[in-house]
Structure prediction request, 198 residues.
Amino acid sequence: MSTISRILDYNNTFVGQKEYQEFHTTKYPDKKLVILTCMDTRLLELLPKAMGLRNGDAKIIKNAGAVISHPFGSIMRSILVAIYELKAEEVCVIGHHGCGMVGLQSSSILEAAKKNGVSEERIDTLSNAGIDLSTWLTGFQCVAESVTNSVHLIKNHPLMPDQIAVHGMVIHPETGKLDLVVDGYASVNSENNEILSR
Prediction:
């Protein structure tokens, strides 16, 4: 039986026994929080539990490394939608120790792509079209610095309202311990003090 068949069989039972009822909520995050985090499998249940979050508390966006690679890409769009359309009032970027993006080089991904049948010609076509694969497929060296960079990009985005606090944290994927890297309240408070002093 395939993975999808097993999932669909389980789903039939889940729906038939009305197990979904305990998860009822609205599309608006109860804690008014949007989280950008890594797609790491260890964080699937650990991160919400380590933060005391329940179904409906937050919007959670996941990608490799909790990285924003483009200020006008889908990650930033999702954050802005969460703020303007879904009433989120704070953003939290959460990276994790032991992330697979640390030290990742584009060459290893491109070699794996070739071994899986992607031709050199197709790779060259992308490069000739102006896509910098060496940058796009490269990770980072320090998770705390990467989180700080993502926080900075979000906070300074031209469509980001000044009053939104953007925090940065790093979670330990075995214990769930959170370390604060960027206190988003500090920048919001300094902006408010600057406005008051004018």
Summary: Helices lie at 3-16, 43-51, 74-84, 106-115, 120-128, 133-136, 143-155, 184-196. Residues 30-104+139-196 form a domain with the Beta-carbonic Anhydrase; Chain A fold (CATH 3.40.1050.10). The mean pLDDT is 94. The longest strand covers residues 90-96.
